[in-house]
Structure formats: structure tokens, C-alpha cells
Amino acid sequence: MLEKIKSPRDVKKLSVQQLVELAREVRQRIIEVTAKNGGHVAPSLGATDLSIALLKIFDPLVDRIIWDVGHQSYAYKILTERNDKFDTLRQFGGLSGFNNIFESKYDAFGVGHASTSISAALGITVAKEMLNKKGRTIAVIGDGALSGGMAFEAMNHAGHIQKDMIVILNDNNMSISKSVGALQAYLTNMLVSRSYNTVKSFIWNFAQRFPHRIKRRMILSARRIEENLINSVAPNIIFEDLGFKYVGPIDGHNMHRMIRIFNKIIKNITGPVFVHIVTKKGKGYEHAEDDAPRFHGLGPYEIETGECFGDNGRSYSKVFGDSLCEIAAKNKKVVAITAAMTDGTGLNEFAEKFPCRFFDVGIAEQHAVTFAGGLAIQGIKPFVAIYSSFLQRALDQVIHDIALQKLPVVFCLDRAGLVGEDGATHHGVFDLSYLNPIPDMIIMAPANADEFKEMLKFASEYNKGPMVIRYPRGKAKFCKSKIEPIKIGKYEIIKTGTDVAIMGIGKSFEDAEAIYNKLEEEFPEIKPFLINPRFLKPIDEDFLEELKKKVKIIFTIEDNSIVGGFGSIIKNYFANTDIEVHSFGIPDKFVPHGKTEELKNLIETTPSLLFEKIKHLLK
Ligand SMILES: Cc1ncc(C[n+]2csc(CCOP(=O)(O)OP(=O)(O)O)c2C)c(N)n1
């Protein structure tokens, strides 16, 4: 069936029975490709039937479909003229793991971060009306993403202006881990609500009384009645109060019902509609169904066993989680906060050991930060663990609610630097630049895992204001030698020298060290300084003054944008001197997806390419 689908128009020609078969084949394709490339398996398998039902009824070029996050859209990609490229998913030069307007005309809006779909859909709806364009706009949002404040802001606006748009809630009761929050409890309650189930079982029992042939027809008509009744019996439907017409809950794996409902909506309903679809995360692949959190997003795996290939070793996230447990065991005031990333930030064990001091606030980074502020102002010591790219949306909270009041909150920024296959939306390459201008903010980046542990301990004892520790994705590097104690704003001078200095902040210290070693090998007459700055802020003025007297040229390396990052601070410092400063880092453009090594090659920041550039500059 899949071979026959050359464009989404072909999906429209298929019968329900054929669509069910198509769904099976699409799932098979998703499993085969993600087993090789890794990816968001369970979300996409769960949304496969929904994708097909949408394409059966809507025209994705006229009706615009916006997937929230976009990690569940693999079936949509396959069916919208990307099946032939699907083997390249998440690979360098290949298809993105999320929706991207530059990848396909079928992708209506770029995504990667959560809770944006309803706002974008509303904007598109209003624009279409202004420009007299045809078609509906459909936002597909998960129950996890619905916990983000932006989703509520958009619903509030949409309910007010009453435009024709459709919000589809893909409710699988899961975020990455189990969904949390009062809204989730409300949704679950709705599904098991007594009145709803009473109506359902009444209709079912009623139909059972009739002979077989009549019974079948009865059940079909009864289902139709049930669909209509649900609206009136489900208790206090919050979405109706927000100005949406509520339809559901509907089994998101029942193709026939979804298609009928979508048809009905198009024909009969105007204004904003909220369609509640219930799906199973990982549907159709037993390992993903059984372990949806692991199959939310993972690397290559063996299809038969569901086991991942390779051992990635102890990650920085794990080091963070373990260290915070040790710190919390000694200090009862320490709490941990995550925005729906318990697993990703390595906080699972903390959550188990200290359930009363652990807070998963949902996909709500802004709230996480200000919530930490409230805790801190009362004397609690919050550690807020957020991925570097996701903290971008909470910058005002960091400035206004934390820094301005000098609250001792520790921000632990995981996934700083290039993250690889998740690509441009997820690279943590702006944090040094966006945090740098905040007065009194202390910003650290460890060069290895032992130093990271020391920094966490140091942060737990510091109570004069906020601190940031940013650290990379992936395997932690441990150092062999003893760690020098951390002192505020003091760089670690690994090698003293003359004329030349090489500084690499955080993970980039590895590259600085590799370049230093190569220089030593090829040009023994050059004796550079090798520096692990540890701090972006404050700067080590004493040491920089000393450098002024000793060097003529400085090289800085970072895995942050060269605009406003570490290099720019050093450049600024030496601006009115004769010292040349050359900064290497992420260039002023968005970096695509691919293996980190491939990306470093692309932006010419591998140690060997940097070495060549430095060699040239030294000449
Ligand atoms: C702002 C932001 N924070 C965190 C994430 C990481 N993230 C990606 S998907 C996801 C869970 C989404 O849950 P849901 O919307 O229910 O979709 P499901 O995966 O269950 O289909 C999270 C937390 C993100 N993409 N964006």
C-alpha cells in the first residue's frame, strides 16, 4: 500500500480497510528506519493512525497542519512525499527529526520546542482570513505539550476571537515520562468519568439484546449516538468554558471513527473546535508500548529485543543526578526542579530518593524558574535542571524573578553546545550569550566530570545570588589528576607560557588541550599558556592582567555562538591593547542536524581544523 502513495492525494483514494493496512506498513517503516538512525519512536507510532485520518480528510497544502514539537510526525513525513528520503532521518544532510518549512511544503510551521502549535495555528488562521485564503488550520498537540503556558495563552486568545480552527489533543497520558499536573488528572478523570462510561455501557448493553445482524447495525448507530452524547454528559468540560466546542474522547486508533468525526467537524462546526483523541504511545510495537519513556527518543536499537546498541557510558546528566543526591543527603534544603525532563536531566534517582524535594512542573520552563524563585526567597536551595535551548524561553524569569533579587538558585544547563541529531532547535549554543549580560550572574562550565562535581558542591554552598553551570550532552570525561578547589572567577592555569595563550571553556577545553599538544609536538619552540577558564563570568581580572604583560596572541575556543560568548568577553577585555584575540566557536548561523563530529566539520571547529587555522595565524 505504502509504495502506491506518491503524494497525500493518494491517501484520500483509499478505503478505511486500506488505510488500516497503510498504517501497519507505515509503522513498519518507522521502526525499520529508527532502529538504524534512532529517533522519536513511540510518539510517532502513537500518532500514525491520526496522521493518516487527517490526510484522508484534510488537504495539507490548503488546510495547514501544525504538529506540536514535531517529534510525532514521522508518519506524516512518510506520507507527504518524503518516504524516499526517510532513510536519512536525523542524519547529516537528511530529513530533520522535526517539522521544518525549509524541508517540505507540507510542513506548515517549524517546530522542536513544545507548546507552540496553537499560537502558530491561530496566527495562520487569522492571516488566511485576512488574505481570503481557503482551508482550515489544525494544531495537533500532546497532553504533555498542553501543560506549557503558551498553549493556554493561545487557547485563551482563540476562544476569545472565535475563528475556525481545530485543536487536536493527542492524549496518551504520557509526556516523556508519565504526564504530570492537575490538567492531566482532569483529562484522565474525563476518560473514566462515571457518566461517560454509564452512557457507553448503556448503549452497548442495549445493542446486545438484538439478533446478530441487527445488533451490528445497532452498534454502529449507537456509536453515532454515543459520539453526540459524550459532549453533553462529560463533566465540566474546561475547553468549552474557554470558548472551544469540545468533541471526544475518541479512540485514536479507530480509523473509521476519526474519519467520521473529522468529516462531521468540517461540515457542521464553525469557530474553534477542540478534538480529544486518545492514543497509545508506541502503538503497534510491543517494546515501545511496554517502555514508552525509553522509546520516546532513543539511539539505534535492535528491533527484535528493543535493546539499544552500544554503551554510551556515564553521562554528564547522570553525574549531575548522582552528585545532587549526595548533596541533598547532607543538606535538607536542597530541592530539584525539572520541566518534564526527569530522565533526560538524570534526576530519576533523586525523584525516588527525595520525592518531597523533587518537582516535575510539566513542560513549563518559565514557571520552573519563578517557582524556584519563590522557594529560594524562603531559604530553600533550588537546583533547576533545564536543557540549554529550553531555558531560552525563560530568560525574562531568570532576569526579572531571580537575578534582580539576587536569589541563590542554581541553574543546571544540560545539553549545552552541539547536541547532534536533534539539530538546530536543540543545540545549546546561545546560553553563554544570553546569560552573559545579566549582572552578578555567576556562570561556570566544567572541563570534565570531576570539575563538574566540584562546581555543584561549590554552588550548593553559595548563597549570595544565582549561578549557572552549563555542561554538554553525552559521555562524561573524568580527569586523572586532583581537582583544584573552585574559587569564584578564578581560571585554572594548566600550563604557563609566553607569547601565546589558548583558552577553551567547558567541553571545548578538550579541543584546546588537543591543539596545545599538537603545537608542542610540531613547534616545540612555542610555549603557549593553556587555560581552563571554568568561569564565563566573573572574569579572572588578575590573570588577564598578567597575560597582558606576557602574550601577543590569544585563541579562545567555545561551543557557544561566537557572538556574545566567551571569546567576545576576552576580545572586549583586550580591545585597546596590542594583543590579538581570535575566537573560535559556533558561527553566526543556525547549525543543522547530524553527528556532532560532522557538524564540527561543517563549521570548521574540529581540533585538527582549528589547529590548521591557529598554525596559519601564528605564522
Ligand atoms: C520547551 C520544551 N521543553 C521540553 C521539550 C522536550 N520534550 C520533547 S517532547 C516532550 C514531551 C511531549 O509530550 P506530549 O506532548 O504529550 O507528546 P508525546 O510525546 O506524549 O506524544 C518533551 C518534554 C521540548 N521539546 N520543548
Report on the structure:
With 619 residues, the protein is of the alpha/beta class. β4, α12 and β5 form a beta-alpha-beta unit. It is elongated. It folds into three domains: 2-173 and 241-296, Thiamin diphosphate (ThDP)-binding fold, Pyr/PP domains (Rossmann fold); 316-472, 3-Layer(aba) Sandwich (Rossmann fold); 492-618, 3-Layer(aba) Sandwich (Rossmann fold). The chain is built from 26 helices and 17 strands. It starts with 7 loop residues before the first helix and ends with a helix. Strands 7-6-8-9-11-10-15 form a seven-stranded mixed sheet, sandwiched between helices. α2 crosses α4. Helix content is 44%, strand content 16%. The longest helix has 22 residues, at 16-37. Bound molecules: thiamine diphosphate. Residues 43, 46, 69, 71-72, 113-114, 142-145, 170, 172, 174-176, 281, 296, 339-341, 363, 365, 390 line the site of thiamine diphosphate.
